[in-house]
Amino acid sequence: MVAAPVFWQNYLNRLNTHPLSTKGSTATFLFAVAFWISSWNGRSPEQVEKDDRQIQTASASGSSQLKTRLLQVLKFLVSVDKIGLVSYMFWGLITTPANHYWQQFLFFHGPSRMPVKLVLDHVTFRYAITTVFLAYLSGIKSSRAEYKAVEDENRGSSEETVEFENVYDSAIVREADKAAGAVSPNKSGTVKSESWTKITRRGGKPGENGNNNANNAKDLSPTVAIDNSPGQVRPVTAGASLGVISPEMLQSQSQKVKVDGKLVARLLGAYLKGFVQGPRNLGLELIKNLNKYWPLIQVVNFTVIPLPLRVLYQNVALVGWVVLMTAWMKKK
Q1: pTM attached to this predicted model
Q2: Roughly how many angstroms between the first and final C-alpha of the chain, as a whole number?
Q3: Long-range CB contacts (< 8 A, 24+ apart) of 194-203?
């Protein structure tokens, strides 16, 4: 009972001494809460059904439904989309100065009549900040989709390499051994290191003598420890020798997206396209929902809430707004 007033008093003191940083930190946290709630409400029907089945199973087995739900929420919070979370938090941080100075302007220089003040705030600030917020999120979504498309293109270009590794089995290794004049695996399943070196460094498809494919040599050689000492025997079976180079390893290497000017230009173009199209797709529906929610919120803001707490109050109201927006867009 004592800790809450002390905490609140400390918060008010920080608002007086460091208004922007204090409002920015609380806005960042509240936007994170808004993202978590909207993501939870935006779960797929399959995920909702799965979570409900877990609750029913817990109830049937005598376990606490509340405990099961809390574990589900905790797991969800940990596995939530990190880029989306950071995007929300960053928005809360960068819009704090605009919100702070706008409230200051309305308090000291704005119209004294409430209807005029409401219209001024709603038309000039609320429409603008909400539209830009939706455009900002739409741009991020579009650029992330573009980046995934680049990854898919990269994955497609790696299929030949992965397929080559898949068919490079023990029978073909023995064929390559014979073609290179190497010693075949003995009864213990070992091959001489000189033979193994030839196979790995030759690069090209087995049986193509003299094919020194530099790219293959570069890709394969570092992944295998080769003992070049004369007469040494390497305990690797012919069938399993290339098993150390799995398709997953080759695929993970080939799927890395190279960051260059071309990629940046593609992502920027996708972001700008999404930025423009996002609010346009919502259109009049967005304005209708703004008109239903914010005027009453702002009446309380201008008549009851003291000036230092107005940004905090609006950010709390924004949590409710994001939740309602998520429910509305889920129905579309």
Answers
A1: 0.65
A2: 45
A3: 194/228, 194/230, 196/224, 196/226, 196/234, 196/236, 196/241, 197/226, 197/228, 199/173, 199/241, 200/224, 200/226, 202/176
Strands (E), 191-319: 191-192, 233-234
Asked whether 255 and 154 are in contact (CB, 8 A), the reply is: yes
Question: If DSSP codes are grouped into helix, strand and coil, which group holds residue 299?
Answer: helix
**The residue to which tokens 């809460």 are assigned:** 33
CA angle 284, 290, 293 (to 5 degrees): 145
Q: How many domains does the chain have?
A: 2
Distance CA 108, CA 67 (A): 50
DSSP 203: B
Mean pLDDT over residues 171-192, rounded?
A: 50
Q: Is residue 153 domain-shared with residue 264, that is, in the same domain?
A: yes
User: Does residue 181 share a domain with residue 306?
Assistant: no
Asked if 146 and 175 sit in the same domain, the reply is: no
State the residue range of the domain holding 233.
161-254
Place of tokens 């008549």: 303
Distance CA 3, CA 70 (A): 25
Q: Which two tokens stand for residue 149?
A: 């498309």
My answer on whether 263 and 130 are in the same domain is: yes
Is 173 a member of any domain? yes
Specify if 27 maps to a domain: yes
pLDDT tens-digit map of 19-63:
999 999 999 999 999 999 888 888 888 888 888 888 888 878 877
CA distances to 97, 129, 210, 224 from 256, in Å: 38, 37, 30, 21
Distance between CA atoms of 248 and 174, rounded to whole angstroms? 24
Distance between CA atoms of residues 177 and 185, nearest Å: 9
Phi-psi region of 245 (alpha: psi -120 to 50; beta: other; left: phi over 0): beta
User: b/e map of 289-313 (b: 16 or more CB within 10 Å)?
Assistant: bbeebbeebbeebbeebeebbbbbb
